[in-house]
Predict the 3D structure of the following.
Amino acid sequence: MFDAATASLAVLSPGVGGHSTVTVMPTSGAARPVPLPGQATAMTGDNDGRVYASTRGGYFRVDIRAGTASRVDIEGQPDTDFTAIARRADGKLALGSADGAVYTLSSEAGVGASLKIFARVDALVAQGNTVVVLDRGQTSVTTISADGNDADHALRAGEGATTMAADSAGRVLVADTRGDELLVFGTDPLILRQRSPVRDAPYGLAGSSRLAWVSQTATNTVVGYDLATGIPVEKVRYRTVQQPNSLAFDEASGTLYVVSGSGAGVQVIAGAGVR
């Protein structure tokens, strides 16, 4: 993920001894590893210098500027395997679990609401105070009510959805890797607004104000699509590092970051989408 306040890319990766590491990569200067006191499964940020990473029983809070990490244990959930995390516009965190529940926090460590209706929560994103759940087992997306107690709407997401991202235009992007499609959902209410074929195993996603970015992991390519016309239109494509699993975009500089899932590093594409 990219943090605008510090102009830094944060990359979550396995670390030493079963612990994870968040590597902070500023736009200038050397990368700084921040070891976490445990294994993390997913992360989100507040765009103001902090990263939150889910773990069993709670989450880690990382201060990007200070390069420090601390653990927060969620009350009453010491053995819960948290697999996903998102931060709402009001600052509340939502965490998803391996056993199919979504927990909406009312404070730093207190659970305000929970909803257990999924096979597994594989990813969470937020648009405003609406949290969207991706369940790979049911290949579905579901919106959670603002109070966290109910599911507002649910839709099937292609033949085998794997990843999800929110963009600045209020949309939710979903990669249907098995069905070779990009799916674009609106969230108020949840509706499938656009779908487009994307060959060669689409996986990594990132939204921006101009383009939606999708990686093709079978060909090590990333493609930028214009969604403005109602039908996704390809505008640009770039060759990438091997296994481009994760994408992040810096709106201020127009820089696209492509992170390899096989250890091939981070590719920086300056002025991405500008021809």
